[in-house]
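Suppose you are handed only these lines of text.
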Amino acid sequence: MSQEPTPIREIRINPIVPSESVLVATARGSRPRKEEAPAPRDTRSHVETCPFCQGNEHLTPPTLAAFPAQGEWQVRIVENLYPVLGDDRTGGSLVFGLQQAIEGYGRHEVIIDHPQHGTAIHEMSEAHLSLLFGAYRARMRQLYDSNPRLKYVLVFKNFGPAAGASIPHTHSQLIAMPVVPENVHNELEHSRVYFKKHHQCIFCSLIDEALTFEATLYHRDSGEIRRKINVGQYVVERGKHFIAIKPFASRFEWEVHILPLVHQSDFLAISDEGRDDLARVLRRTMARLDAVIGGAQYNYFLHTQPHGPEHADCGASYHWHLEICPRTSIPTGFELGSGLFVSTISPETAAQRLREVALSAEY
Ligand SMILES: [Zn+2]
Ligand SMILES: [Zn+2]
Ligand SMILES: [Zn+2]
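From them, the structure of the protein bound to zinc ion can be written out as follows.
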């Protein structure tokens, strides 16, 4: 197993959103946090009382969409019983003094990922995951088409209680909202500025760098090697159309991002062939994460181009991606108060450990 070569203590700036940074402190003993327990793993395939299990469809709100549309469903979308946003009220927005409230208009839906209860992402077949991405795409498109007030449809998955999952049956969620989430807004704005300056998408530049860049930094006085960056050092997985990368300034120790290799701003533009390859890259990446951190609780979410005329110009500068964020420790007051995430394993070592996993033949 790879060890940290030399302890690092440095603040790394996120190249996409410079206001986000991470403190990488890998020296032994700089472990200020409580480890998060692995998610309680429920491997049962059917649970009599679970509303999301096949055969229990009467226990959930009505089906909004099912995939495939005919026959036994493999992926099923229903209304969330406890929506954070809804389209049942139309009160308009409020401004009072400095305080502003935008009406919480939108949709909150549950995507039941798989008919079998405790199936992990890496245990689903490639064909199934491709169907799941097809379901995300179809429902997002439907929602955007249904109402021009919806600016962003956020698709995400919580796995494990620490990641916010309250129902153990494997599922994702979708929240359609009238505003662009702050995280996406920051990425959009900064990538727009970068594009103006360099005439290139910053995400494409980062992919190029991950695949082609190498460098050695030396100490000015001693001439000793300070840092060596090898080609492919941040690459975890590479498919025909997608790449899984460990960000240089990862907020979470095992965070991995998956991006299309060729520039694409809107997830809705993914081709069927692209979907198959995304399924393969995600499945292999999740199997690697599972082998290294076993049963981790995690979130993943899609960041993609918002809709509406005010975002139509970011097609060249923005690049959609899937962020996978395993929760292996509980954030401290320091992290919440400063916004500075602490990583006790360097992204380089984490990427290497993920790459070193020998995947079994089924992958
Ligand atoms: Zn279930
Ligand atoms: Zn790009
Ligand atoms: Zn993002």
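What can we learn from it? The two ends are 22 Å apart (CA to CA). The pocket of zinc ion (ligand 2) is lined by residues 201, 203-204, 263, 319 (CB under 6 Å).
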